[in-house]
Amino acid sequence: MDTSQFIQRDETCWEIQPKGAMRVPAIIYADAQLLQDMDQKVYEQLTNVATLPGIVEAAYAMPDAHWGYGFPIGGVAAFDPDQGGVVSAGGVGFDISCGVRTLLTGLNIAELQPHKQALADALYRKVPAGVGSKGKIHLNHKAMHGMLTGGAQWALDQGYGEPQDLERIEEHGCMAGAESHYVTPRARERQKDEMGTLGSGNHYLEVQRVAEIFDQNVAKTFGLRVDDMVISIHCGSRGLGHQIGTEFLKEMVMSAAQYQIVLPDRELACAPLNSPLGKHYLGAMRAGINCALANRQIITHLTRQAVATLFPNIHLGLLYDVSHNTCKLEQHMIDGQRKSLFVHRKGATRAFGPGHPDLPTVYKEVGQPVLIGGSMGTSSYVLCGTKESEQRAFSSACHGAGRAMSRTQASKQWQGRTLVDKLAAQGIIIRSPSMRGVAEEAPLAYKDVGAVVDIADRAGLARKVARLEPVICIKG
DNA sequence: ATGTAC
């Protein structure tokens, strides 16, 4: 896009001053190159978000931002319920609570080498992947309610996982305020056989090698050493989250006029936080968060089982579990005053700094682990939250590389089989039910994740701790 | 992202 539309505030901060219906500025964190390469749609969508009622401070875009539904993916916006603030289904995203969880193995990658193919096979057999994938778990009405209100805590109670997993999950594995009665029969129907499945698109289960450490102290606290094997899971709330998003979006479009909300774009449909519709969405969305937390918890259990067939004596402990499609009630300082705000993060990771009360004790001194998934075949990163991120974007950071090309464009340009062979030659094993899906996820269809993470680090959104390289990737 | 349109 045209960078002359911005006032450059510092090395990584670009501002669009309020104009027209904008209530606050729009701010993008990027360098000149990333900003130039960013779709003009990010500018339009972010300035549209800045017009919404009750928005506080600014509408923010992370360095991985790209064109999304209504809100850009990589967008952060906070709303004050006492100032007419709103909640938007498109501002959370359709894959509610999509996120990344990383497991530590303590195993040196060299020990994996003789078992690499076998582990790829075991994981691929154990964890269902792909569009409409179903698992071995089938939820009746009671179990569905338990899952929607209990999240990873429910999964643990069903025997999936270990008690010590919970403290290393946002919300300690259970999102409070979930109201399962706002989740429709149709959404439940779509989910009842999908627990413990990866889904499709950019979702994956990846065995990785710790390739580089940027901060020895924090890496030690996080349990990361060079050449350690780790496993990351990227997925969300599957059909259920999508159905909740679809249904509430429609209702929000229909009721906008009733709430006197002027929408610059239908896709920005929202409802006042204090309205019945806003509250119902929050209740359903929180149930969607629990679905994603339970899903990643079950996949963790399946992963442990698969790994145990080859390495019966190792323990897979959680590094952390982050969600990057949410709207959460948080305390933030605005003009020296503590405010309770509803922070939308869509394709953006929460990144609380050192000392934050919601962090597990083990990470309280260093800050929250921020898990950044790379694209297929490229590096992933572990960062940690900083104090200054609170002032930069409500303690938020990027969530991945960010698409640089549409799925259709990518599937025309590359062939799945060729990519799989090419990555195999680099020592990366890909297992996927869909070669078209693989083509859509071609590494070059994404931005350079290293450049994105460098900007997040330089902007103070989060600090680089470690780089992970893929070894085995189970793709949805 | 998604029973890749209801």
From TrEMBL:
Residues bound to Mn(2+) 2: H234, H324
InterPro entries for the chain: RtcB, RtcB-like_sf
Binding note for cofactor: Binds 2 manganese ions per subunit.
GO biological process: RNA processing; RNA repair
Catalytic activity, as annotated: a 3'-end 2',3'-cyclophospho-ribonucleotide-RNA + a 5'-end dephospho-ribonucleoside-RNA + GTP + H2O = a ribonucleotidyl-ribonucleotide-RNA + GMP + diphosphate + H(+); a 3'-end 3'-phospho-ribonucleotide-RNA + a 5'-end dephospho-ribonucleoside-RNA + GTP = a ribonucleotidyl-ribonucleotide-RNA + GMP + diphosphate
Positions contributing to Mn(2+) 1 binding: D95, H203
Name of the molecule in the record: tRNA-splicing ligase RtcB
Organism of provenance: Candidatus Methylobacter titanis
